Amino acid sequence: xxxxxxxxxxxxxxxxxxxxxxxxxxxxxxxxxxxxxxxxxxxxxxxxxxxxxxxxxxxxxxxxxxxxxxxxxxxxxxxxxxxxxxxxxxxxxxxxxxxxxxxxxxxxxxxxxxxxxxxxxxxxxxxxxxxxxxxxxxxxxxxxxxxxxxxxxxxxxxxxxxxxxxxxxxxxxxxxxxxxxxxxxxxxxxxxxxxxxxxxxxxxxxxxxxxxxxxxxxxxxxxxxxxxxxxxxxxxxxxxxxxxxxxxxxxxxxxxxxxxxxxxxxxxxxxxxxxxxxxxxxxxxxxxxxxxxxxxxxxxxxxxxxxxxxxxxxxxxxxxxxxxxxxxxxxxxxxxxxxxxxxxxxxxxxxxxxxxxxxxxxxxxxxxxxxxxxxxxxxxxxxxxxxxxxxxxxxxxxxxxxxxxxxxxxxxxxxxxxxxxxxxxxxxxxxxxxxxxxxxxxxxxxxxxxxxxxxxxxxxxxxxxxxxxxxxxxxxxxxxxxxxxxxxxxxxxxxxxxxxxxxxxxxxxxxxxxxxxxxxxxxxxxxxxxxxxxxxxxxxxxxxxxxxxxxxxxxxxxxxxxxxxxxxxxxxxxxxxxxxxxxxxxxxxxxxxxxxxxxxxxxxxxxxxxxxxxxxxxxxxxxxxxxxxxxxxxxxxxxxxxxxxxxxxxxxxxxxxxxxxxxxxxxxxxxxxxxxxxxxxxxxxxxxxxxxxxxxxxxxxxxxxxxxxxxxxxxxxxxxxxxxxxxxxxxxxxxxxxxxxxxxxxxxxxxxxxxxxxxxxxxxxxxxxxxxxxxxxxxxxxxxxxxxxxxxxxxxxxxxxxxxxxxxxxxxxxxxxxxxxxxxxxxxxxxxxxxxxxxxxxxxxxxxxxxxxxxxxxxxxxxxxxxxxxxxxxxxxxxxxxxxxxxxxxxxxxxxxxxxxxxxxxxxxxxxxxxxxxxxxxxxxxxxxxxxxxxxxxxxxxxxxxxxxxxxxxxxxxxxxxxxxxxxxxxxxxxxxxxxxxxxxxxxxxxxxxxxxxxxxxxxxxxxxxxxxxxxxxxxxxxxxxxxxxxxxx
Amino acid sequence: xxxxxxxxxxxxxxxxxxxxxxxxxxxxxxxxxxxxxxxxxxxxxxxxxxxxxxxxxxxxxxxxxxxxxxxxxxxxxxxxxxxxxxxxxxxxxxxxxxxxxxxxxxxxxxxxxxxxxxxxxxxxxxxxxxxxxxxxxxxxxxxxxxxxxxxxxxxxxxxxxxxxxxxxxxxxxxxxxxxxxxxxxxxxxxxxxxxxxxxxxxxxxxxxxxxxxxxxxxxxxxxxxxxxxxxxxxxxxxxxxxxxxxxxxxxxxxxxxxxxxxxxxxxxxxxxxxxxxxxxxxxxxxxxxxxxxxxxxxxxxxxxxxxxxxxxxxxxxxxxxxxxxxxxxxxxxxxxxxxxxxxxxxxxxxxxxxxxxxxxxxxxxxxxxxxxxxxxxxxxxxxxxxxxxxxxxxxxxxxxxxxxxxxxxxxxxxxxxxxxxxxxxxxxxxxxxxxxxxxxxxxxxxxxxxxxxxxxxxxxx
Lengths: 1034, 461
Prior knowledge:
The complex is a heterodimer of chains A (1034) and B (461). Chain A has 1034 residues and is of the alpha/beta class. Chain A is 31% helix and 18% strand. In chain A, helix 10 packs parallel to helix 21 (530-537) and helix 14 (342-356) runs parallel beside helix 16. The termini of chain A are far apart. Mean pLDDT of chain A is 85; it is low at 1-30, 46-54, 56-85, 90-105 and 1026-1034. Chain B has 18 helices and no strands. Chain B has helices at 8-13, 26-38, 43-69, 84-95, 97-108, 118-138, 165-198, 202-212, 219-252, 264-290, 299-330, 333-344, 348-360, 368-371, 374-401, 416-439, 445-451, 453-460. In chain B, helix 4 packs antiparallel against helix 6 (118-138), helix 5 (97-108) crosses helix 6 (118-138) and helix 13 packs antiparallel against helix 15 (374-401). The longest helix of chain B is centred in the middle third of the chain and has 34 residues, at 165-198. Chain B starts with 7 loop residues before the first helix and ends with a helix. The chains are: A alpha/beta (1034), B mainly alpha (461).
């Protein structure tokens, strides 16, 4: 299954030719016996046990050691290399690097030797991708993926439809993983300080230290890992524990789920992995939960929830109430949404809980809009006993989460729409507390050796812990990571970590389903997995493959090979999900805990959240994710202090004003973002920015919100202060953010987003048609082309789109779309072929938020084709408006005449064609566009052609669903239908025939092939005064 | 010289100022005009040419950097994919209109006053079109492939896409340039012969001689010459109307609100003539003072140009009013918002400055005192030069920046490289002009001779 050494010759060569890189070489071994005796001497002396030593040479006191290393290996300064090119410089360099592009067109290509295979490897046909099932972990939880391999290079990840938990859904992080693999800034070898060393040197130095620690029973040894669900990693940790019984193991995810487990512990007496079944939920109440976008369940929840929104497929529509502080994707999908601070949310929750009869809960007194909600929401929930869900955010107070569980209990939802099992993490721990404890021990000098495995606590530990200063007191510091990051910088050793696409591993997803992580490529660099490092620490060094096999031998038992191969093939182990437990709510505990929640703190409330692009900071060097327009505000390349319009008015702040955000002694400078729909009195700041050692993309972007984080209040904290600095920082958004009322009015008048209520739709199924202007059928002067074979088309269902952005990154990965940088985005030059337009509608303090994915509509009467002077954009006989990149001279007239503004122009040389490793990331079936050329979506024509070849071989037509565009494939909400409009049975034809189908800018009569299904919402008639005005119905 | 025959007596009897000082003789005219060329080199000319050249070098710099980096050095983006380059292109082309109008249409209409200014205006046309021509080529993403817009036989068997107005542009502008340069050259032949005859340096005489094409002033020469000249005038006339009509198609054929309007062709042509006359005034007034050409470029010339400006300015104003009216009358949400945004949106200043420059300022031309005052004419023409540039800014940028999809609204501002290229073309224009006035007769000697009092006598006999 593993493809080894099948790369074209240039790729391994890039590593071998680099003079900075070295292979294992003989190193005159340090006299270990001498070291050992010296160490024993030291330990034996007075206070010797406490004596810390930092390195072998210090210990050996041998000055030659250092010299030897330097003589043997030329100086290698990863720091210079990483920081030598600033982000701004990167874009400049990208622009300058081609130089006189015109001249290069005339130069002769460099001479290369092409050596044909003597024996063609089986299944490996150039241009024909191979697909492998594997799994990727995000914050510890696995997502089933199918990886596409082009000549041994993984280039694209798609969801694994068979996977029992994720069911083929993927999100932005998964889609961005291929770029992480090929990130040129990755750590590439084992380094000590700024020197590259062979693996042997590492183990040689480690061995005596570990032996010394072993003799102390493991005291002073600490392991830091992210949340571990991997059985193999757990097995290695167990082995380490066996050798070092007193080892401290701390799992720490900056986006940890402590509150979630605490909440379930209060409600059910033990920490549980609570899961929701949104396919069965008719009524959903979300209490500050962004369940469609955040947390390990998000992909599945989005899939299930959206299935209940697709009335085009006969779904019986559910109803969603959301109370939240900052608008999220879940909020934008809601039928009723209200902003609220944590106190307001808690008051509302208690009021509803009291109405629902949760024993012992004292009803809160919600104000304003929320007060009018209580009865309606409670009765709506009560009318759907057993088929409703009350879900609280994973970062909400444990008491609130427990209260939500209790409400589900009162509604009889437990066991129906709400299930629970033992936590999927290999060993549950309260991560925040554990980290704080570890830091205390470090500061007290109790930790002699720290292994920070795949984590970056120097950057992402809460500010009050001051991890960096505590780390200085640790004698031996080893970091294993993908980057020479902030923590690696402060450690003695850094072990470059393998990417999940180049090493063996395993992982469990939120329901417990086990997957083997199989590599698709030999490690690009001299990297190791954390399993390998742990096995070394445990004293039984082994390879990743052997370690995983050994673990799974226990898992699969007899007929191991067959089961192993089947699991690899399927991408998951069938029936490995955690057993469901019966849930019984402990009402006393809940009522006790619920008293304390929502305590009104003083001053502004700070809310910290993981970012929708860079997450907790781990993806900060991923250009795709950094430049991803965030779902609601469309900001790229920055985080901001997000405040409500009313808060901004009071304080006199405007968007782009830089303010100093301070929490206690810590403060960071952030530009203000005035967010319609934000709860008054709250400030939301996203984590993951302000990296110092992320790499050329992420360094210095935004501000580090971990500086505001308190280990006791990791998510929300009162008393944050904003102070004017007098400076301005223009946030690079992909949608303008001024005159929102005018934009709203114009968007409504133009019927861009057509929406209406379910009630209205039932009364008048054709109401969508009546919006906008009627254009008579044959109103074109020319006869339309007749399509005799295929007639491709796409329909996007706005009712189920959650605006999650997965399609954007998927499209970017599939179509080799470049990243352009902050300045270029600011200048309106982002290159995304697919964008998600966001419209606000109504009240500034609580608008409705609509998402509308827009890519090239492949107009039948395309205005762009008419005006191109060289015929570089033409229709093909299947209706696709194709781009002939080689023919384009770049007049940009097509873009001016495109009413949808979906064409993207290479104003500068945006594609990095120089960096060797990035060449591996490209999809070979899509041209890499040069400077001065227009580009746009072509319905993934390369995929159509691939399917066509397959179909022709079998002498049949392409089947419906056989071609899945990158956006369609990635969509967790399954809101995109693509296919042949000539086939009346195809999904796209059926969607298009639906009553709610409409063309964007229909009155222009350009006959777009991509159409939309109007956004149908299902508001509660009892709350209809709650402003269900159909602006789109004018 | 029947063609150029004018009833000087009649005009005099009406008490209007003359188009030429009656005391001027053909010899004095020759001496005066060629004196500019063969006389001493003035320091100011050297300085002025030097300054023009340094500005021209900005053009070289701007184009080099453009080729190295790409059009991304400019302010263009999505949605505003056209910016300064297209604005400047249309602006320069517009300026280039006066020359042909004066040369051809006024010739056909027997407006004898044109003779004093036509040579210069024609030269200005050529230089302006040269400046204009730079933009459409270099504004493309890959200018080295701009020749793909020409229909030439090639191994790929590819033709341009003839439905595109840009292709029409290629033909319209190149035809215009070709006809203009031939027209100009044919008009120059007798004067080049005069210069050949008057040159004292044999090398210079030889050079003028080559270009004079053996002109001897024989009767059959004159006969052929006048036929050719008339023919070319006939050919040029439709071009005056067609070039800017075709340029306006770049916009009118697109479906963008603010572009898609049937009024564009006449409105653009009027605007072009308007701009062209303003530029002629801008250049002629200082030139007249420097070379003491009051005898040939009289107050009546200036006044007539002022009148043309007033008329064309009113047509342009009518165009604006029609646009506003149609936007409202159409009831079309996109058109209405476009106009609202043009007047009150973020670029309101451009619109109102445009109204001030193009509508308000030229109203001064109603007043005879202003119309006959060198100062006020120069003052007004400056307003029109700026105003016409702003007009194209409003059409190109303001229409593009907020159009159909609200989500795609954006903004635009020229960068320093946009300005560098624009100013650089001014350097090109100025350099060509200064070289021109030193090596070629800025006034059409033979034609002026024909309308001088003595010349008339000769012609009558």
